[in-house]
Design brief:
FAD/NAD(P)-binding domain; alpha+beta; 12 helices; Gamma-glutamylputrescine oxidoreductase; 428 residues; oxidoreductase
Length: 428
Amino acid sequence: MAEPFPLQPSLWASTAAPAPATAPLGASTRADVAVIGAGFAGLSTALHLAEAGLRPVVLEAREIGFGGSGRNGGQVIPGLKYDPDDLVQRFGPERGERLVAFAGGTADAVFDLIDRHRMDVPHTRTGWIQGAHTDEGLVQAERRAAQWARRGAPTRLLDKAQTDRLLGTARYRGGWLDGRGGAIQPLSYARGLARAALRAGAVIHTDTPVTAIARQGRDWVLRSAHGPEIRAERVVICTNGYTGGLWPGLARTVIAANSFQVATAPLTDNLRRSILPEGQVSSDTRKLLLYFRLDHTGRLLMGGRGPFREPKGPGDWAHLERIVAKLFPQAADVGFDHRWCGRVAITRDFLPHLHEPAPGLLIDIGCQGRGVGLQTSMGRAIAAYLATGAADALPIPTSPIAPLPLHGLHRLYVSAVIAWYRISDGGL
């Protein structure tokens, strides 16, 4: 997939800790498990496999964190798109509550890894606020906070005055706060995961696109673009929003929507005290949600949907810059010094999917915009499944690969839906 319009490096590329030394695959070799993709899911899988005593080899087409893992908003939000009671209704009491527990612990997984491996990753953990812009959104916030609170999560409802103060904008009617959430520098975190995986015994080859995968006897054979091959009894594909044609039909099971972001110049101390003064991260209840936070350099970040296509120029981020001025008029004159975007893999049912189309081949796809915690935890679960063979190590059952009907028309459909949501969400 083409790289976004090269205006300047993303904020994360400009401020990340150095990447560990890696190199392309230079000679054919064997691995216990071959992992395709060096994002959060692939790196977490490799780290936990290595800690379990297996020898994983990671193959990355570009560089560590090149895809959505190094381009997202850096918000660590527990849970899934569905509320806990909805998951229990969908999957049944036992499996549903197990999935709720898994989803509720995804933020813990990230911050625990950062602490345990002493990663050089700027991070905060003061919670996530979901602001409600309508009365319907307030009802949704009350329901979510109550369901998570019944399961022991540190949640609280926020009235309008509290929401105004904590967010620094008067545009919301109230909301709720989930104390489990937080923020990280996502590219630093991807590089920290890679460094930890290497120390544990994993091997990572960057600039090594996999061009073919085939079964030969008991082995899977992965051919790289440079020619060398890797043989492994087991393979994990973790390419998410940057999935190509490596496995038949896989790319057509998701919509790889583009998530656009802008970052202001560093705010003055006075402005920082007026916007997200306690350091929470936020995304709202809009259908076309907005997400925003401060980073460790004091910049205000705003993210949301943009054109489905790759950007052509600075104008593709103009809607986000206008939103910053409307939500935070006190920052209207600050100016912006970073613009970037990255692909998010969205499934038809808004749930992560695990596929096992052949023995020894496991595919993880679908992050729905909560990939930092979700894919970190998914990698840990995949490693446990491969190391033990226990199916209940996976948070969701595997399912057949089912391409979306008329997938080629979905870009037009998504673009039309985005335009409609912008109108129905209140015209910000």
